[in-house]
């Protein structure tokens, strides 16, 4: 009888254990410590953060998209000229205001021309236009060490394909090119500093003076 009772008791324990195995809360007693918290993706967040922080190009791309979306990135020129008109200076003032918010970021200015004239002349003219933009941005307080006018596409990338004069083709385009120190990863917090600074600014209350100066304000 004692053996039969022990066997029954053992069977009961096995049955109970099997039943407990279907209950994650009660079943954790029989499993490894912490197993209930791991549903198969434990550690994925840390892994993703590490991968994202190492992806320097993705940060540059994201900032580039923001720049193009939030301010005009292009100015145009009169025919055979690298002089900035009133409209160009107004656009560049907007660019400078945006650039000042991101002291960690570098920018390139690309110069273009239309298809009138020789390729060699247009390449020089395109570079002159890019240099004029860099000079104006520098006059707005942007360090020249953050600005590059190193590439001129001349007449090779028209917005509007035509052999005639076309103002849209006589342009410069300002783009984000990278971080100031040009490191291969952003684990030192360059991009984090940008995000944190904007996060703090977004939490600041709007003053009555700002409200009065806002569009539609009294």
TrEMBL record:
- For this protein, the parts annotated as crossing the membrane are none
Q: In this record, what's one Pfam family?
A: OmpA
Extract the SUPFAM superfamilies matched here.
Answer: OmpA-like
Query: Which UniProt keyword terms apply here?
Result: Cell outer membrane, Membrane, Signal
| Protein name per the record | Outer membrane protein/peptidoglycan-associated (Lipo)protein
The cellular location(s) given in this protein's UniProt record come to: Cell outer membrane
**Secretion signal: which residues?**
1-18
Q: What is its main location?
A: membrane
Q: Would I find Membrane among this entry's keywords?
A: yes
| Lineage summary | Bacteria, Pseudomonadati, Pseudomonadota, Alphaproteobacteria, Rhodobacterales
Which GO terms of the cellular component aspect does the record hold?
A: cell outer membrane
Please report the stretch or stretches of sequence annotated as the OmpA-like domain.
Answer: 64-180
Task: State the PROSITE patterns in the record.
Answer: OMPA_2, PROKAR_LIPOPROTEIN
Question: Has UniProt tagged this entry with the keyword Acetylation?
Answer: no
Species whose genome carries this gene: Salipiger profundus
Q: Which domain of life is it from?
A: Bacteria
* CDD domains on file: OmpA_C-like
